Amino acid sequence: MSPRSRGRQATLDPTRYTPCFSRRAGRVWCEEVPLERIAARVGTPAYVYSKTSILRAHRGFDAAFRSLPHTLCYAVKANSNLSVLRLFAALGSSFDIVSGGELHRLRSIGVPGRRIVFSGVGKRPEEIREALRTGILMLNVESEAELELVAREAARLGRAAPAAIRINPDVAAGGHPHISTGHHLHKFGVDWNDARRLYRAWKDSRWIEWRGISVHIGSQILSLTPFERAVRSLATHVRELSRDGIRLRYFDFGGGIGIRYWKEEPLTIREYARAVTAAVRPLGCHLLLEPGRVLVGPAGVLLTRVLYTKRSRGKNFVIVDAGMNDFMRPALYGVIHPITKAHSGNVGALLAAPHGKADIVGPVCETSDCFLHDWRVEDVQSSDLLILWGTGAYGFVSATNYNSRCRPPEILVEGHRFRVIRRRESFRDLIRAE
């Protein structure tokens, strides 16, 4: 399914709702650097992130929960670049991981295990073993079979495993079926009746230390209602376990807050925080939160240049040098990420083109390699620099070498300066492991 533009575009400029990006005399700037300067230096396609945007987002999210004992565990899967992880580590953030590779990334920059929560439905024995050796804060267990494996690995190492069970609350939420994770049909979590049985059965185990309870219902959620349902449900379970003599320290409420990509109307952090804290405060638990997209999504853009334009049987195409291998979300989810020119004489970035609408497509040999379908663009020519907005989360982390294409570089902007935090891949990189 190709992403389609919806409704009027003429008055919407992404710089108006994207922190730390601005339009000055027709040029788009990231902090104090024009994006054209970055593209001229590093080439295209290229990911660009604003350091200030990331820092502000984390501090704002953290401040919204200041009335309650809490810890932010940044979701590494959203953007796992080491320089980005270092920013969060320097802020004192903890981290949520879903693989041994993400654990290795954090350990490589000196993050201690006590600041890491390990989630995910398919942990391998060696991943569990390494997490326990690291002294991880908590393993979020997602099946009875996994719990038994965790206990065996803990016994092998001679230390109790700090654990929680991820509950599947049967709450449908998320911006797309592929990123909804809390419904009973989904692979994630454990039904409450089974979870309560497991909490009771392993209550006095030497190798399982019950530290918390966990839930995560999806991603890109724009309504408060599913969060309210899930937090109330989990709070009820905490009380039930307390009556069973199982007192939990951590209440892990996951992440999932949506952001504005195009015309979405996301929740404010304050209203989300009010709903969560009202349910958690009476429990006396320490709240764990796992934001990802909301912290890094608006901080990033993908720069790409126009290769060609063409008209075929009355249809316009703008062919750019970025492809679905560089940025998968439009092809995978059919979502809209606005595209504008980096340099325009117009104050508004999205204006009806003299030739009408166009499909903005990449060079990959798939029809699904389409960023926007029937998009009203300004008149563009070969070599014009374009911006894909809102690509700081689930962008580069999902990039592939499909069609033997080299993955793009990542750039971090800090005030008047920018630096390459991942170099562009070379052809040698493509065959290094073969």
What are the SSEs and their pairings?
Blueprint lengths: L20 E4 L2 E4 L2 E2 H8 L3 E5 H14 L5 E6 L6 H9 L3 E4 L2 H9 L7 E3 L6 H10 L3 E4 L2 H14 L3 E6 L25 H10 L6 E7 L9 H20 L6 E3 L16 H12 L5 E4 L3 H4 L3 E13 L2 E6 L8 H5 L5 E3 L15 E5 L8 E7 L8 E5 L20 E5 L2 E6 L4 H4 L4
Parallel strand pairs: 4-19, 5-6, 5-12, 6-7, 7-8, 8-9, 9-10, 10-11, 11-12, 14-16
Antiparallel strand pairs: 1-2, 2-3, 4-13, 13-14, 13-18, 15-18, 16-17, 19-20
Brief overview, please?
This protein is an alpha/beta fold.
Note down, in words, how this protein is organized.
The strands form 3 sheets. Strands 4, 13, 14, 15, 16, 17, 18, 19 and 20 form a 9-stranded mixed sheet that branches. The chain is 27% helix and 24% strand. The protein has 434 residues and is of the alpha/beta class. The radius of gyration is 23 Å and the shape is elongated. It has helices at 35-42, 51-64, 82-90, 100-108, 125-134, 144-157, 192-201, 224-243, 269-280, 293-296, 329-333, 427-430, and strands spanning 21-24, 27-30, 33-34, 46-50, 70-75, 94-97, 116-118, 138-141, 161-166, 208-214, 250-252, 286-289, 300-312, 315-320, 339-341, 357-361, 370-376, 385-389, 410-414, 417-422. It has 12 helices and 20 strands. Helix 8 runs parallel beside helix 9. The chain has 2 domains: 14-50 and 297-430, Lyase, Ornithine Decarboxylase, Chain A, domain 1 (Beta Barrel); 51-296, TIM Barrel, CATH 3.20.20.
